[in-house]
Each structure stands twice: as structure tokens, then as C-alpha cells.
């Protein structure tokens, strides 16, 4: 009885502690940014002059780049659905991309609400609970994986430049590096030969049951996607990478429109650093924190105050603030026009109804991707049952 009371007490106070920690984090970030921007913020009149002096051609490039970024996000989700035998029309995929982004950047706990909204729309287009949840999880993993890949590419490019400069100054370094590689390969070969053979792994209780519970849907999604054709993985990952790169191109075009004297490598480093801050849910969509962090990075790189502020305003206008009204339009499209084409029968189209909460693996059947799915369905493909509300 005492243990139950203690558990209830901890459960009651945990949300308050999380809210307090988030508020403290926001205040700490704002305090650091305020110290760094002290005396560097431009006057509003100077920012307006920079806006009026912008090159319209590069502003148009920024608009097109951000539109391409949203289109690639839609393509990423659509490709994953295709890999599992579900077809979502292009107009619905684009509308879902805008509406998901609008939810994520405008509401508290926007990422979770955005994922739930995507789950519902996947179900509307004929996906089973398992497929909808799997695609939802894999889409997030691909986006994060693409961002990590961009970090790795940037790190390797920077390391290559520094190593090349060091080798030109110290010719003996290539010889030392070659010897180090040979020694490392030899040690690895010997270590693998000495490893004892292990028998089959036995299941054992996890040390962190709560973490295991959180990661279980991810593990199930990965298991469900093992048979996905490499072509689908390549196209989905390519769309995720291009999504980040076109968003970076939007920032670069805005910087060029205001004549910022910052190199592409420096701008990419600032962008990737800001994306790290963006992954921390201090505010919905990072509103306020992203603007200040981006402005701080541009000023630290040597940009002038007024053009840097104008660049941040234009970039965030295109990548955040305008997405919210466009997301409402996308929500109307999804609400009024529903797809009637699916890849085939799903467990939801059977006469039996599966009861229970939505989670991975509840449909009671093995889920695997179809390798023979094309972008468009044949005329005699099955028709999806229309879902009036959230899936049961």
C-alpha cells in the first residue's frame, strides 16, 4: 500500500518536474543568447532597409527551395507507404507534409500530435494499424538518420581539409598513418580469431524496463521492414537527405539575397548546429530559440547585424511561419478529399474487427513489404474503406 502511494506521488509530480525543467532550459538558452547578442541587435529601421535592398531573384530561389523541401518530405513518406503496399496520392502526401509540419511547429507536444495525425491519415489511405505505425516510426528514423549523415559528411569534409593541409606541411605523416592502419588491421584480425564462439543468446530481463517499453515499437518497426527492397530504402533516404539540403539551400539563398559575406561551409555549419538545438523541444517548433540561435551564429561568423537579421526573418518566414496557414489548407484538403485507392486488402477490410488500442503487431498477422508495388495501382486494385475518425 505504501509503495502504491509512493508510485502515485511520483506519477503526480513527474509532469510538473518536466515542465519546470523545460522552462528552466528555455530560460537558460535565452540568457546565454541574450549575453551573446548584447549590443549587437540591429535597429528595426536598419532591418527594413536591408529587406528593401534584397535581391528579388534570390528570394524567389529561397521560396522554391523551401517548396522543394516540403515536397521531398511528402515523397519520403509516400515512398515508405509504397514499400509496404499502400498508395497515397501525391496531392494527399503534399497536404499531409504541410499539415504535419504546421502541427509540429505550432502546438505544445507538436511532434507527438503530428505523428498521431499522420497515423490517422495513413489509415485513411488503407494502411493497417501495424503498417501505419511502422511507416510513421521509420519516417522519423530516416529523417534523423539523414541529419546524422549530413553531420558525418561535414565532419569528414572538414577533417579532409585539415589533414591535407597537415600532410603538405609534414610529409612524414603519411608514412606514420600507413603504419598505424596496418597495426590496427593486424590487431583487429588477431582479436577476431581469439574470440570464443558463443552459443545462442538467452533472453534476460532488461535493466531499464521503461526504456525498453519506449523502444519496443521502434524495434518492431525495424523488424517489420527487414524485407523492404533496397530500392525503396535508397529512394526514401535520398528524399530525406534532399529534404535537409533544400532547406539549407533556402537559408543560403536568403543569405545571398542580403549579401551576407559568409562561405557555404560556415553557413552549413551554422545550419547543422541550429538543427541540434531544434531537436530539443524547448518551445513548439523551436520558435524564438531557433531565430535567436541562428542570428547568434551568423553574427559570430562575421555577418553584419541588419542583413543577418533580415536573413533570419526571411528564412523563418518561409520555413516556419508560412507553413502554419498552408498546413491549415492541407488539413482541409485531407478532410474533404480522401483517397479511394489502396495497395490491396488489409486486415481492416476483413469482416472481423480487431479491438484494442493502436499499437504495433495488434492486427495478428505478419506484415511485410511488397516488392512488386509500383507508384500507381492497377485499375482493379481494392478500394479502401473510409474511416470517419481516429482508428479504434
From TrEMBL:
It comes from the Bacteria. PANTHER family: UPF0104 MEMBRANE PROTEIN MJ1595 (PTHR39087:SF2). The keyword Ribonucleoprotein does not apply. Residues 353-392 are annotated as: Disordered. The chain crosses the membrane at residues 17-37, 58-75, 131-152, 172-192, 313-334. The keyword Amino-acid biosynthesis does not apply. It is found in: Cell membrane. This is Lysylphosphatidylglycerol synthase-like protein. Keywords: Cell membrane, Membrane, Transmembrane, Transmembrane helix. It is a multi-pass membrane protein. It comes from Herbihabitans rhizosphaerae. GO terms for cellular component: plasma membrane.
